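Title: Prediction job returns without error message
Component: structure pipeline
Severity: low
Priority: P3
Assignee: unassigned

Description:
Job completed but the reporter wants confirmation the result is attached to the right record. Sequence as submitted:
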Amino acid sequence: MSTESRKIRLVMDLRNAGVSDTRVLAAIERVPRESFVEEAFLDQAYANQALPINCGQTISQPLVVGLMTQALESTDRHKVLEVGTGSGYQTAILSKLVRRVYTVERHRDLMAEAERRFNALKLHNITTMVGDGYKGWGAQAPFDRILVTAAARIVPPDLVAQLSDEGGIMVLPVGDASGLHQEVIRVRKDGKQFTSERMFPVRFVPLVQGVPSDVSK
């Protein structure tokens, strides 16, 4: 089966599994997932499953990417913070949907690889930073939307503070580090008040505070 056929089948599978936002499906169709997976897993680029990448991280299952992106309810006017760049795949999806993406990654090697991919794909509305994603990116706040791609034990207060008071939305997995009890939470902010709703179970790597010792703070 050709790459294009695999991609079409994946998009159909995502639609059948609950990704109904046509903008999100179009973005998934436009971003070449094979550009973000390790060479050893190229034949699985359009399988609906998570795959390992460097630094003990993963590229998320396409269904989870689709559902979490859909939950953001983003528009092309929005400024978005992504916590956990990883391979850059989720970042690239967001870049097709919003005005600008600010993305933070604690592993310098992963960020360097992701930046190379962004440049190769001519994705020019992405701004990157190596740092502690748990603290967000205060200098660029507020953000209309925040997407976190690693599981926090609690909703990080710094990220809530950096979310726009005017209808800001944050989507993130919350739960224990084992991955056995995690679920995606959607936080909506109105003024200084926020509400949260549980969405669906997931299994993510943990959101780690701080940065590796080779990354300057």
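Comment from assignee: result matches the submitted record. The helical segments are 3-16, 22-30, 62-71, 89-95, 108-120, 157-162.
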